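Anyone up for a design puzzle?
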């Protein structure tokens, strides 16, 4: 739709600049293939009651009552009631960027506590105040590595989420960055031995996922040492709930840790809003995008919180700015903080143990079905791959009719894996639901 200027003078300026007499001439000069919009063709307005009914009918088309075994980076965890109760308070959900610390101590303290929680979870020394989602956080980590090393070659594991890999490819499409992909191993491992061999003096970083997209758990400590010896940085996209049990990215020597924070207190909500977290070594702290909140004291010695580092530098550096990230997912970050604080250290460990124990049980139940076989190794957290005797997407459709979202058909992103299904189990799934899944799948097959 053309810009409808508010005043006659505005319109005349537009016409003078474009050499047009009216909007129709402007559209002709633009050589737009689409038909010119006609505002008089819009339907008449309807009442609030009618709009509500329309939206209710649309919402009813969503399959919200399926028993969910989907994962692939986004997980159906239990969310404590306290999360929505506190984030729903007006001082939080109406707050904007806390530029004035004297008026924003509550928000600033929440951000500080969130950063501290991410540092403890990842075992990294510094975290920022959050980013948009897991994919954009991974892209920002890649750009951080390129800026720091002044190199343009990036090696990425093929066992990183295909959604994230697509985002990296899209976001860097017009940049002078070379993306090299390492094919996963036959056991759905990341093929670690190939990464040091692929590194050279032009390699900025290596990007991996932990656990990887297929659910496999791998120790990257030795591989990271070999990569660092060649001057490249190492970046890990991590599943935060798994970090309650597994060896932390910090212990393995990663330089940057990012991830999708949706599993920490945010509903799936058909795709968002979600949360990207990022933590780095102290050496890279000033290279991080976004902002960092710090704790300090005023001149009278009273504790307070401020924005210690804020990189809204695109205002002054424009295209030379290290990032265009100018805000953070503050309400989502608060949700993550409330989730972690509400569960506590042992509570988070309990959730992680339930996830992995139930995943082991579910895998055993599914592998007892004739025609179903295991794919990959036995080292997984809450997600695993099985092979079905037929097209997994077609079988998934039949399972949906029975009330189950049984998993993610890998053929959608990996054409050679049409018979394979990625199944995820969280603490939310009961033994009865898992057995019902196995019975329904056996009946479908």
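Challenge accepted. My sequence:
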């Amino acid at each position: 739709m053309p810009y409808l200027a508010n005043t006659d003078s505005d319109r005349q300026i537009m016409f003078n600049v474009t050499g047009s007499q009216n909007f129709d001439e402007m559209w002709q000069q633009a050589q737009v293939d689409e038909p010119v919009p006609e505002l008089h063709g819009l339907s008449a307005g309807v009442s609030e009651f009618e709009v509500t009914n329309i939206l209710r009918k649309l919402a009813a088309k969503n399959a919200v009552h399926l028993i969910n075994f989907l994962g692939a980076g986004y997980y159906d965890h239990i969310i404590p009631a306290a999360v929505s109760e506190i984030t729903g308070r007006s001082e939080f959900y109406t707050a904007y960027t806390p530029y004035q610390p004297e008026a924003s101590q509550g928000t600033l303290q929440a951000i500080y506590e969130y950063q501290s929680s991410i540092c403890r979870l990842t075992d990294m020394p510094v975290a920022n105040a959050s980013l948009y989602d897991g994919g954009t956080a991974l892209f920002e980590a890649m750009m951080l590595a390129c800026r720091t090393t002044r190199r343009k070659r990036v090696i990425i594991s093929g066992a990183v989420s295909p959604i994230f890999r697509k985002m990296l490819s899209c976001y860097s499409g017009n940049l002078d960055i070379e993306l090299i992909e390492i094919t996963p191993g036959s056991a759905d491992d990341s093929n670690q031995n190939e990464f040091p061999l692929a590194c050279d003096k032009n390699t900025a970083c290596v990007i991996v996922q932990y656990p990887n997209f297929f659910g496999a758990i791998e120790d990257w400590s030795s591989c990271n040492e070999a990569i660092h010896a060649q001057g490249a940085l190492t970046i890990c996209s991590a599943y935060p709930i798994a970090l309650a049990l597994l060896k932390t990215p910090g212990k393995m020597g990663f330089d940057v840790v990012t991830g999708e924070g949706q599993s920490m207190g945010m509903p799936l909500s058909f795709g968002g809003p979600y949360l990207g977290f990022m933590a780095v070594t102290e050496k890279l702290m000033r290279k991080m995008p976004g902002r960092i909140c710090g704790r300090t004291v005023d001149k009278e010695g009273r504790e307070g919180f401020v924005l210690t580092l804020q990189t809204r530098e695109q205002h002054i550096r424009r295209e030379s700015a290290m990032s265009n990230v100018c805000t953070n997912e503050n309400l989502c970050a608060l949700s993550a903080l409330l989730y972690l604080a509400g569960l506590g250290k042992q509570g988070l460990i309990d959730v992680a143990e339930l996830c992995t124990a139930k995943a082991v049980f579910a895998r055993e139940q599914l592998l007892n079905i004739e025609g179903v076989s295991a794919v990959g190794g036995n080292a997984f957290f809450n997600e695993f791959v099985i092979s079905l005797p037929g097209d997994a997407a077609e079988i998934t459709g039949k399972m949906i009719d029975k009330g189950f979202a049984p998993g993610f058909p890998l053929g959608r992103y990996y054409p050679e894996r049409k018979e394979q299904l990625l199944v995820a189990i969280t603490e939310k799934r009961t033994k009865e639901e898992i057995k019902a899944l196995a019975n329904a799948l056996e009946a479908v097959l």
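A detail worth pointing out: The chain has a mean pLDDT of 92.
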